[in-house]
Design brief:
The complex is a heterodimer. By secondary structure, chain A is mainly alpha-helical. Chain A has one domain. Chain A contains 5 helices and no strands. By secondary structure, chain B is mostly helical. The longest helix of chain B is centred in the C-terminal third of the chain and has 27 residues. The chains are: A mainly alpha, B mainly alpha.
Chain lengths: 114, 147
């Protein structure tokens, strides 16, 4: 893997994780304040923009790598998103949930290494 | 009580949750199927229009030349709406790990449909993901019972 490939994969991951957190925050706000609330619309809008960037980067990467090789890299976002959901969105975690998440991440890393 | 409330932050109570076709768990299954479909379409569209010599192709713009890419984008938009709907009712820390069933389904679909090879090590990784999914599914079931 070249340095550029690693850079774009990491950029893809960062935009994907950020987009997911923004989506969840926007949906929480939509339940409390409604979809027409300015804050809900703003966060959802930024989330869509970030995820669109992630989507374009994904397309670029797909032109260079096998899907079954590339796609599991996104799996490393599982543990990042789960931890950030606890830290930023105040979702608490059980030991079982953390263990399951770690296993999924390990499995995905194993898939991406093979 | 406060600990329970904190754990289930981001979750809607069962009594507030739609049933039938609009049930978020049913939509969750639809979402996963949608992801598998659009990932395969994206790969097919991107491969059909690949031009690695062009440095701008890192941003995927030239993949838009393929109709398969546009079909994939249509599925992505529908899937995004479904995902946003799911996030209204299910905590991200549960929904996202469970959504990684895709990491099992996509390589297997690539193996079956795109004829891409899967090594024994990759099969081991797929098995680990499945075990992890089963473990994560338990907190999801507890969440359903307690709400």
């Amino acid at each position: 893997m070249t340095k550029w490939a690693l850079f774009f994969i990491l950029l893809w991951l960062a935009t994907f994780v950020t987009g997911q957190l923004l989506f969840k925050r926007a949906m929480e706000l939509s339940r409390k304040l409604g979809f027409r609330n300015r804050q809900t619309i703003s966060i959802l809008g930024v989330g869509i923009l970030v995820m669109t960037t992630s989507f374009c980067l994904n397309l670029g990467l797909l032109q260079r790598f096998d899907l079954s090789y590339l796609y599991p890299f996104q799996g490393s976002s599982i543990i990042i998103i789960t931890l950030l959901a606890a830290l930023i969105l105040k979702e608490s975690l059980t030991a079982r949930l953390i263990a399951g998440t770690l296993l999924i991440t390990a499995g995905v890393v194993l898939v991406s290494m093979s | 009580m406060s600990a329970n409330r904190q754990f289930y932050a981001g979750a809607a109570r069962t009594s507030d949750r739609p049933t039938g076709f609009t049930n978020p768990w049913f939509q969750f299954v639809l979402n996963i199927v949608g992801v598998v479909i659009y990932e395969l379409l994206l790969k097919a569209g991107a491969s059909a229009s690949a031009d690695p010599s062009n440095s701008w192709s890192w941003f995927g713009i030239n993949a838009l030349a393929s109709p398969l890419t546009w079909l994939a984008i249509a599925v992505v938009v529908v899937d995004l709406i479904i995902w946003l709907y799911i996030l209204r009712y299910i905590p991200l820390s549960i929904a996202f790990p469970l959504s990684r069933a895709v990491d099992v389904l996509v390589p297997i679909s690539c193996w079956l449909i795109l004829k891409e090879a899967i090594s024994p090590l990759r099969w081991c990784g797929i098995a680990l993901v499945i075990i992890g999914l089963v473990i994560v599914a338990k907190p999801a079931a507890e969440l359903e019972q307690r709400l």
